[in-house]
Design goal:
275 residues; mainly alpha
Length: 275
């Protein structure tokens, strides 16, 4: 089974690389047939990622989300299916190019971490594990889409302001469409992020008798939640849209990355994968 799992992971890396390459080719050629092929390949990648996660589950007997490798694979999986579900409802020009590159980078990062199977510590032996950790990483998936939308917005806005129209002007959506994309992904991601914090608190109450431990990752998860709360509140009340909204989406995602990796390797704690 270990060999099958390893081959599945290699397949995930290879197929995602091909999907990213196809999206990049489409970005420059604007050949719609290539876009269809790229989207289909990314769908295959999503299916393979699912099979890989299932294979890890069969091997360890619990949701494979407790090591750095597993968490980042789950993050890539969440981003893949968040994009595919978004794409099923909305059409955003060349959005898949940036998203597929981000997914591939996440998988490359996961490949650098140990794939060893580790037994589940007693504190994590709970049905809350897949609920809390899974919901939190799904939130990260949607917030990563907002991040990609923010990058696209700033690139498009820069070309419009300079009046030197290059590759981005004709290939990216309008600023209004990108702003709506960011708003949709922020809202969806924030809902899942809130559910992640709530389920984590309920699990902590059950496991340790207190709703909040002030563990470093708990603290930074709360900081990240407040950053996104401010963004959404300001969007609704004073119209934090446009460039400011794009910059905040990028800064919010930076907080997500620090919560996932920075806290793990710099601050440690009971949620750390570093040990």
């Amino acid at each position: 089974m270990n060999e099958i799992s390893y081959l599945l992971f290699l397949s995930v890396l290879g197929v995602t690389f091909i999907a990213s390459a196809a999206y990049i080719v489409f970005f420059f050629s604007q050949n719609k047939q290539i876009r269809k092929i790229a989207r289909l390949i990314l769908l295959v990648s999503g299916i393979l990622q699912t099979l890989y996660i299932v294979s890890r589950y069969i091997q360890v007997g619990h949701t494979p989300i407790t090591s750095q490798h597993e968490a980042v694979v789950f993050f890539a999986w969440a981003t893949t299916w968040a994009y595919l579900s978004f794409r099923w409802r909305y059409s955003v020009k060349n959005f898949g190019t940036l998203v597929s590159i981000l997914i591939f980078l996440l998988l490359i990062i996961s490949s650098m971490s140990s794939r060893d199977l580790t037994p589940l510590v007693p504190a994590l032996q709970s049905w809350w594990l897949p609920v809390h950790a899974g919901v939190s990483l799904i939130a990260y998936g949607f917030l990563s889409l907002a991040f990609c939308g923010g990058i696209m917005y700033l690139l498009q806005e820069r070309e419009l302001k300079s009046k030197r129209f290059g590759y981005f002007f004709s290939r990216f959506p309008s600023l209004d469409a990108l702003d709506q994309l960011i708003s949709h992904c922020l809202t969806t991601g924030f809902i899942f992020l809130t559910l992640g914090i709530v389920t984590g608190s309920l699990w902590a109450r059950q496991a340790w008798g207190t709703y909040w431990h002030w563990d470093p990752k708990e603290t930074w998860s709360l900081v990240t939640w407040f950053i996104y709360l401010v963004q959404i509140h300001q969007r609704i009340t004073v119209g934090w849209r446009g460039k400011r909204g794009a910059v905040m989406a990028i800064l919010g995602f930076a907080a997500v990355m620090f919560t996932l990796w920075g806290v793990t390797y710099l601050l440690g704690g009971v949620h750390s994968y570093a040990g």
